Input
Amino acid sequence: MQGHLAIILHAHLPFVRHPQHEKFLEESWLFEAITESYLPLVQSFDGWSRDGMDWRLTLTLSPTLCAMLKDPLLQDRYNRHLNGLIELAEKEIHRTHWDRAHRELAWMYHHRFTRFRDTWRECGHDLVSALGRFQDEGRLEIITTAATHALLPLVNHGPSVRAQIMVAREHYRECFGRDPRGIWIPECAYADGIEAVLQEAGIRWFTVDTHGLLHAHPRPRYGVFAPLYLPNGVAAFGRDLESARQVWSRNEGYPGDSRYRDFYRDIGFDLDWDYVRPYVPSPDQRGFTGIKYHRITSWQGPKEAYDRNQALWLAAEHAQHFLDARVNQVRHLNGIMDRPPLLVCPYDAELFGHWWYEGPEFLNFFMRKAYYDQQVIKLTTPTEYLEGNPTQQVARPSASSWGEEGYYRVWLNEKNEWIYPHLQVAQERMTALANDFPAPNPLQLRALKQAARELLLAQSSDWPFILRTGTNPDYVRRRVKEHLLRFISLHEQLRALSIDEAWLSQVEAVDNLFDNLNFSHWAEGGRT
Output
């Protein structure tokens, strides 16, 4: 009996767009992800299809990420960023002329950046449409997540949970011309009742972390190696912990090997400030350029030079090890299960390339080895698995998330708890506005849609996460307060029947996502 393996990559970034600034530090989050993760994925997909592989992979594209990838302003800024990388690599080729190891790496970066520019141009600067073509070919399944990646159990407001899902579904339709069949619920955070909104949206399945499925009621007969149907018919897929540990774990996982490229050692910190200043994300402080010459070596102490060929050899070895482990896992499960076992391997897409530089090569090696070198495992997607195996146990997962302690603690703690009372008031006010303005005039409609956008952006799970980690807390606090204050102003203007159109236009120009947003999703009873 052949087992199945579903790799799910979750591509998501918070909405960061600042047209009022020529260059903005946090926009580099998007630019780095495009260069180091998304373009390498497109190149891998192209290669698999070109070579006739019948490959399968599932990819989440969050609505906020899609909005940024399709935004002309950000596309132009990324184009400028990529040209800057090529220019910097050319300078590095000359600067390292007498440093053979670094000069070879400088040439490597120049070659990669130039190829990325070619791929970027071939895509017409539109990665969303480029990825959609792989879905149209039947090899890639693209799924969605909540509109702004709100942690749904902590939203604690039925109409707002519904709006997060419905806005995401409608934006997905605009991007791909069809409805999503699956969803990555943000942070894999499940609580009773979420499945009712998913069913209403026509979504067939979602992901949960391992313990969310193992603690289901009744207990799952097949553990995480088969999905569960909830009583309303929506399916839940659980993460395979063993395959997750081999890739994710800092101590046990592949990315921590000392021979891989070090993420933190960058010429933006090492070289003369005047030399690197035009190429760092912010003109006022040092930062990452993307050119790094050292391998991990050790977590402490001096770093040794990065050997690209050795790292690629290692990625191939790790891909073979990962495949062998999955094959042995499936063989064992085949001996104790009466149906084809399924291994679900969900990862953040940015792990592959951004955090783990050799991750795209690892994935490429693995997919090719899985397709050509064995017959025990079939690559699949959750939707395809359900179509071939429609009879599954009915149970209800437990409340859960991934992250510290597995029950929302990362997103609700002493560092970020102040956000939620303000969100609760805004959510209730948004529903009252939707109820009280069933037939708004054109200006009121604009204000209602913008109020909904500001609320959605304030609900993002990225903000409490960053506050918890402390990586950029000042920016996050400012973002949350700005969105809530804009919402309050719009609410007051709508109630006073006096809307400042000039100010509204300014806000619309900054927070411009979801152009066709339907504010009625917040109404009691869910008008559409």
